[in-house]
Amino acid sequence: MSLLKFPSGFLWGAATSSYQVEGAHDEDGRSPSIWDTFSRQPGRVREAHNGDVACDSYHRIDEDVALLKALGAKTYRFSVAWPRVVPTGRGAVNEKGLDYYRRLVDALIAADIEPMLTLYHWDLPQCLQDQGGWQVRQTAHDFVAYAEAVFKALAGRVRLWITMNEPWCIANLSHQMGEHAPGLRDHQAAVSAAHHVLLAHGLAVRKFRELGLPGEIGMAPNVDWREPYSQRQEDLDACRRGLEWFNNWYLDPIYRGHYPEEMLQRYAALGVEPPVESGDMEIISSKTDFLGINYYTGSYTRAHDTPTPLQRTGDVTQELAALLNVGSVDVTGFKHTDIGWAHFPEGFYRVLLWLRDRYGNPPVYITENGACYNDEPDADGRVRDGRRIAYYEHHLIALHRAIRSGCNLKGYTAWSLLDNFEWAWGYTMRFGLVHVDFKTLKRTPKDSFHWLKQVYEANALRPGEAGRLAH
């Protein structure tokens, strides 16, 4: 089959986040984050794992940058830990904490790897959570002060800035569904958190412009794709509701200056509304330079035959089911990754076209895409993760199709460079291109690492080559 070439200058790389890889949880002035607290609550994280050590990347900058160089990465997406930089949440800046990121950025630049810096990847200082966290407006202003400290410390050395990673997870998964820190189950808490996260994003974009910094700034939401089970209107409507809750709730305010109307009405039926104040939507819709997109999976969606009445019952799970009235259906015999997510590359292609058409084809970096397969080293020490290679091949073909279809795609960072702390799953789920022995912290590049290295160095893909390695 012919070679699929990517545009000249396409930015290939890999991604991680601070709490998932850094460790050093109590070193050099870092204060506890909400994940330090959450992971110590019984039953919250598999096997009571936590990020105290993680991959120990705080002490292994040279080793990890060398892995990135060996991969052929031209960019590294990482996040800064707010409790490391401003341990009290607001106020005094901890220069020792900033020094770690200065060293990391310097090492990346020396290796000809472009830093892509995320300001918030879920590790809110616990001291701010104690004062209401993302449910209160003040946290948005505290975030901007923290962001300004990082902007000034790394101005001129970081070109690509991301304000927020996956606001749906920050708000819905963490405040509505209770699966991530701080572990709340309350619709109003989720909607308030979502609004203040978006406000913090908009305020940070404005601060970035005010400071006159070189570079570009955007946000990185996670998106999924809902394909209608049928062309019945009920199923089409179910898909729209699912997308409004997951995708549009965060993207419409940025690109259109308002929340999706139907979801506002459905939340209102539960007595829930976002705490919008005068001028907020103008701030939230401040012009960004690019959009980061995290994609892992999607589904075929249909409406329930007997919808649950949309009303207050006191049962959050039941209320959420009524709010959405959607159900997923496996109509194709999906393969699933070890975390249980459907392997659905067609959804990747379709959501990229949807973004192109709905939001005016903004510049897009794929800031996360990858798969969980828990392959361990064989007797010879080699990690044969052919299923992950197949996942990457299928999704990179979808990416190439989207580029050929006119989507304004600028780069791709695989999730993740390293096996790491996978949030509520602890260390039981592995997404890395590099296997990490969490007892010794030994790093071993997997077969997928070597396969992606070939793609990155060629800036091209030959479909079908990965099939021989899948098992």
Automatic annotation (TrEMBL):
Keyword Hydrolase set for record: yes
E.C. no: 3.2.1.21
Alphabetical keyword list: Carbohydrate metabolism, Cellulose degradation, Glycosidase, Hydrolase, Polysaccharide degradation
Binding site for substrate: Q20, H121, N165, Y296, W415, E422, W423
GO biological process, one term: cellulose catabolic process
Entry keyword Hydrolase: yes
Catalytic activity: Hydrolysis of terminal, non-reducing beta-D-glucosyl residues with release of beta-D-glucose
Catalytic residues in the record: E166 (proton donor), E368 (nucleophile)
NCBIfam families: BGL
Name recorded for this polypeptide: Beta-glucosidase
